[in-house]
Amino acid sequence: MEIFHLRYFVAVAENLSFSRAARQLHMATSPLSQRIRDLERELGRQLFDRDSHHVALTPAGAALLPAAKDVLGRFDDLPWRLRQALGTERRAAYVGVVPALHPLLRERLARLEARCADAYDVKRWPGNSGNLVAAVQRGDLAMALVHLPVHAEGIEVLELLHEPLGALLPGAEFGGRSSVSLSELTDHTYVTSAPGTLPTYFDQIKVRLKAAGIHREINLDIGDYASVREIVANGSVFGITLLSAGSRGEGKDTSVVLPFRDFSPALATGLVWRRDRARPDGDLHALTSAAGEEFAGPFDVSRGASGSDCADSADSADSAGASDAPAAPAADLQPPRPPRELR
Hints:
There is one protein chain. By secondary structure, this protein is α/β, with parallel strands linked by helices. It has helices at about 5-15, 20-25, 30-45, 60-75, 80-85, 105-115, 130-140, 170-175, 200-210, 225-235, 275-280, 285-295, 310-320, and strands spanning about 50, 55, 90-95, 120-125, 145, 155-170, 190, 215-220, 235-240, 255-260, 265-275. Strands 3, 4, 5, 6, 7, 8, 9, 10 and 11 form a nine-stranded mixed beta sheet that branches. Strands 1-2 form a two-stranded antiparallel sheet. α9 links the parallel β7 and β8 (about 215-220).
């Protein structure tokens, strides 16, 4: 038995689907099924009841799942636990960042980098929300700025802001309009970038669109937002994007972004980190405490950064009796990991 057998088992158990687990693991379904059969043969137990339409855990699989997750967690924790034991004075701390991050959040992140420069070399690592959350769970990333919702075991979420979304529409048809309703788009096709490139919130949007009578949909093979704009400009299709994206192009290439009159979608962004690493005895307690202070409160760019440093933040949290970082209420292709010697 190898560690990857357990990783594959957990992926199937959490998705209850070999095809979804294979996409999450960035591999084909056939070798994934073979590895699960190998694991079952070695353990002498059937772990899944499966047919062409249904996958479920057997009692043996249900018993193995928590133990497998515990083993994987301990295995993935080895790098940062070693660093914690050696007590390195200043080390790299990777912070995941989703595309199209709001400028105000980038400003707060820059302030955190400067504030903690004596203790941490804070580096940014790009990715989509699902990948970044998974990387935080594994311990590859210290924390991440991701699109919500996020419901992941052992992860704390500090919700930061909501950005309103609007309809990306062909300018030739909707230019000059100030808003649009879903009922006007029932004859249009909804177009999105490639599966896995959008926040999970867009799954909820699809449900709302279908309820409004919008059933035609196109999923592009690429994650390039500019390509979505180009298709929208051709007419008869629409997309959904940040309302702040505004209008682009001239003539035939024109597209406009309008608010909905009968729909109020908003994309939420939050900061996530592992709960155990943020505790007073965790290796990221000082960093997460400082991050909680820098990202908390209204986003007023006129307010200067606090003069206290990471060590001060940790001390103040301890003196207040805090045992955890601030509490509050995803995976696709596996992302490349930060260089091991820098994690």
